[in-house]
Design brief:
about 140 residues, mainly alpha
Length: about 140
């Protein structure tokens, strides 16, 4: 009986060691993966900051170029409108569009509305019929008498 208990103790000890080794292996692998992802995230953040400053420098250059031929307030206003238009275009490009969807209220070249552009579906001229070849209103419900 003692030998059996000793073997169970060894089995439990071996299972604990295997679980510990597996946990350490997974932990090491996750550390390596997150280290690479942190580096990538830092590079993206640096790239975004540099792009922000580059955009500010371009906006300043546009404003100063316009200031040569216009009053300062007009140059600043035109630069602001250009930046707003670029921001709007980028936001519009970033929004996901439904497949096959057209803009609400869009009309074709001949003045008719595009199919599917209405917010309310069209109503059929006649009610649908139930069954095969029966006229509307002739269907009977069982137990109706």
């Amino acid at each position: 009986m003692q030998r059996l208990e000793h073997m169970q103790h060894l089995d439990k000890h071996l299972a604990d060691q295997l679980a510990h080794v597996a946990r350490e292996s997974v932990r090491t692998e996750l550390r390596e993966q997150t280290r690479g992802q942190r580096r990538k995230a830092a590079l993206y953040a640096g790239s975004g900051a540099a792009a922000l400053y580059a955009g500010a420098a371009v906006a300043l250059a546009v404003g100063l170029a316009l200031d040569l031929v216009l009053p300062g307030w007009a140059a600043a206003l035109i630069t602001a409108v250009i930046l707003a238009a670029v921001a709007f275009a980028l936001r519009t490009a970033a929004r996901p569009a439904a497949p096959g969807a057209t803009a609400a209220g869009a009309t074709a070249a001949d003045g008719t509305r595009a199919a599917g552009s209405d917010s309310v579906p069209p109503v059929p001229s006649t009610p649908p019929t139930v069954g095969t070849g029966r006229a509307p209103g002739t269907d009977r419900i069982p137990g109706d008498g």
